[in-house]
Amino acid sequence: MCVVNDIEINCDKFAEGPQSINFYFDIITRSGKNGILGSNTYYHFLDLDSLYYTEDDSGIMGRFVMVNRNDTLVLCSRGISIIREDTCQIIANIDLMLSSNRNSAFKDLFGKALKSPDGYKQYLYDYIKKSRFLYIPIVSDYKRQIGILKDRSKEELVYPQFPIEINKMKPLKIGIIRNEDETDLEFYSPE
Question: Dihedrals φ, ψ of 135, to 5°?
Fold first, then answer.
């Protein structure tokens, strides 16, 4: 038996469980202008917060969060996108190895999923389906990044200034990755 945050589970079951869950956020701007959207929480999950706000770093920009009842989970993300022609995609994820260093709620989530009689995929699917997703921008990071970009281009960019609730696609599909090199990806949707 293995113990994950005081939850006993079969070690074989843990090994066959997910390493991470990817979320693909399609971002659409209706402003008619090019936009910028970023989220870089990767260093936070590596306990390397000192790498933010260096000369070469744009900061965190914003956080994707998943809210389910009393749980608020910051998703791991890494990227800045310039939105041209109204759309772009940003990927954020729950990564068991990275996230477990910073937030025991991730360990709790995976531990409960692996112990669920319905199977971990169904447990995670139900949990995610009942969750709300938000993007919370850090406006000062955007202003800093816009200043850097203006030095390179005269292009006007719009950026989020208030939290945004994110709609889930219907039917909902979750991307489950079962190995560290991300070659074993499965999309799961019981609907």
Answer: -115, 125
Rounded Cα gap, residues 134 and 160, in angstroms? 12
Residues 190, 158: contact at Cβ < 8 Å? no
Contact present, 135 and 163 (Cβ < 8 Å):
yes
Residue 3: the pLDDT is 44
Cβ atoms 14, 5 nearer than 8 A? no
Give the DSSP H or E segment for 98. Answer: helix 96-99
Distance CA 171, CA 154 (A): 41
- Exposed, middle or buried by CB within 10 Å (0-12, 13-18, 19+), for 2? middle
Q: In 10 A of CB 183, how many CB atoms?
A: 8
Which of 50, 105, 34, 49 lies closest to 75 in space, CA to CA? 105
- Please list, in sequence order, all residues whose beta carbon lies within 8 angstroms of the beta carbon of residue 177, skipping any fewer than 6 positions away: 18, 19, 20, 21, 22, 93, 184, 185
Q: Which string of b and e fits 16-34 if b means at least 16 CB within 10 Å?
A: ebbbbbbbebebebeeeeb
pTM of the model: 0.78
pLDDT higher than threshold 80 for residue 26: no
Q: Specify the higher pLDDT residue, 167 or 184.
A: 167
